[in-house]
Design brief:
With about 400 residues, this protein is α+β, with helices and mostly antiparallel strands. The protein folds into 2 domains: about 1-230, Vaccinia Virus protein VP39 (Rossmann fold, 3-Layer(aba) Sandwich); about 235-365. The chain is about 25% helix and about 30% strand. It has helices spanning about 15-25, 35-40, 55, 80-90, 105-115, 130-140, 175-180, 255-260, 280-285, 300-305, 350-365; strands spanning about 65, 75, 95-100, 120-125, 145-150, 165-170, 185-195, 200-205, 210-220, 235-240, 240-245, 265-275, 295-300, 315-320, 325-335, 340-345, 375-380, 390-395, 400-405. The chain has a 10-stranded mixed beta sheet. A hairpin with a 5-residue loop joins strand 1 (about 65) and strand 2. The longest helix has 18 residues, at about 350-365. The mean pLDDT is about 95.
């Protein structure tokens, strides 16, 4: 029985669940009574029985339930904070029909709570181990009304369509036609979409053949498997430093490696941030306005060697041109406990690229920092240019993704 489980410190699931909900409320992840209630009643530890109770109820802890032969995560139970944000984005109402893509089990149980006995929840995953685990957890926790399918989610689940909501819990590069076809007019698709090396959970509403964002939040998910899988391309500039791109790039890797080894050209932006301030919007702005943009990532060893600045440890947008590149590399103290953002440029055109970079940071600071954020539209791949020329366009196999900043 769930009530017989005890954490190492003696806490029981009910107490851990209550503490989790309170922390989620304080951090602003829970913003509506129905979603809060779902978090209070669903026994999430039953869906990851191998994990310690404290791990199952850690607000920012995802639990890996399956890895590949190389140790990479194939399936996880997402962190409560991530699930809360996505469920709030979903805006579920009682009686709705919902398709979940990616079957951890916990999310499906909370979806069932939110739509109630008159609603319908279907979840699909390509992995038989994952769907079997989801079935067991749903049955044990009292949500066996959820329909669980094993299939490639690229095709959706047409037998249960149309859906008022489709909630995707794996990272994707493109949106397959089946998802749009199975989404009701005016329905909402919530999807973790990869955009130039960064991932955002986007709530998209359907109007005819177009999807338009209603909210955009940072997120991180394991990548989708099956027909929709798309690997990122990584160019190593050093054993501890790499450039990641969504698309294959023709790079002068040798020239960029040489540039990395040279002293940087440093430029200061005049843009300041508070010590606890998040700048996710700035990251998205840079990745969707900088030409030739990738993500520079580095191991701690590269930071310790003085090869790159500390921000590269988590990944930062980098503009690349030939044998030169620039990236957000550093901060320096400013007034009132704030810090100014700085850029490093490397290579023959490093100074020029660094100037271009800081100019775009200043533009974001003046025009968009306190605005509504990016609007993202998804159009079919055959959409003519004149319908998508109002923003930055990413062409995918099935869609044209348009990002603009009002």
């Amino acid at each position: 029985m769930a009530g017989d489980d005890v954490a190492e410190d003696g806490a029981r699931p009910e107490a851990l669940r209550a503490a989790m909900v309170e922390e989620l409320r304080q951090m602003g992840a829970l913003r509506s009574d129905p979603v809060e209630r779902a978090f209070r009643v669903v026994p999430r530890h039953l869906f990851s029985p191998e994990a310690p109770l404290m791990e199952s109820y850690g607000v920012n802890r995802s639990v890996v339930v399956k890895r590949d032969d190389d140790g990479m995560a194939l399936s996880t139970v997402s962190a409560p904070s991530m699930q809360a944000n996505m469920l709030e984005q979903t805006d579920l109402q009682a009686g709705m029909r919902v398709l979940e893509i990616g079957s951890g089990g916990v999310n499906a149980a909370m979806l069932a709570e939110l739509v109630g006995p008159e609603g319908h929840v279907t979840t699909v995953d390509i992995d038989a181990d994952v769907t079997e685990r989801a079935r067991r957890g749903l049955a044990e926790s009292g949500y066996d009304q959820v329909r669980v399918f094993r299939d490639d989610a690229e095709h959706g689940v047409v037998e249960q369509a149309p859906y008022d909501r489709i909630l995707v819990t794996v990272g994707v590069w493109d949106i397959p036609p089946a998802w749009l076809d199975q989404l009701a007019e005016g329905g909402r698709l919530i999807v973790p979409l990869r955009l130039q090396g960064v991932m955002r959970s986007i709530a998209l509403e359907r109007a005819d053949d177009r999807l338009t964002s209603r909210s955009v939040h940072p997120c991180g998910f394991v990548p989708v498997q099956g027909a929709g899988a798309r690997e990122e391309h990584v160019a190593l500039l050093d054993e501890d430093v790499g450039l990641r791109f969504d698309e294959q790039q023709r790079l002068d890797t040798a020239g960029l490696s040489e540039a990395l080894a040279t002293p940087p050209e440093e430029r200061w932006s005049g843009v300041t941030i508070g010590s606890q301030e998040m700048i996710d919007d700035l990251t998205l702005w840079l990745t969707t306005t900088l030409p030739g943009c990738g993500m520079l990532t580095a191991k701690q060893a590269a930071v310790d060697r003085g090869l790159v600045g500390r921000p590269a440890r988590r990944g930062v947008p980098a503009v690349v041109h030939g044998d030169s590149f620039a990236y957000r590399a550093t901060v320096r103290a400013a007034e009132d406990d704030r810090h100014e953002l700085g850029v490093h440029g490397h290579g023959p055109r490093g100074a020029e690229l660094a100037e271009q970079y800081v100019d775009l940071m200043r533009q974001w600071d003046r025009q968009h920092r306190h605005g509504p954020g990016a609007v993202i539209e998804i159009h079919p791949a055959h959409t003519p240019d004149e319908r998508v020329n109002h923003g930055f366009v990413l062409d995918r196999n099935h869609t044209r993704v348009v990002i603009f900043w009002p």
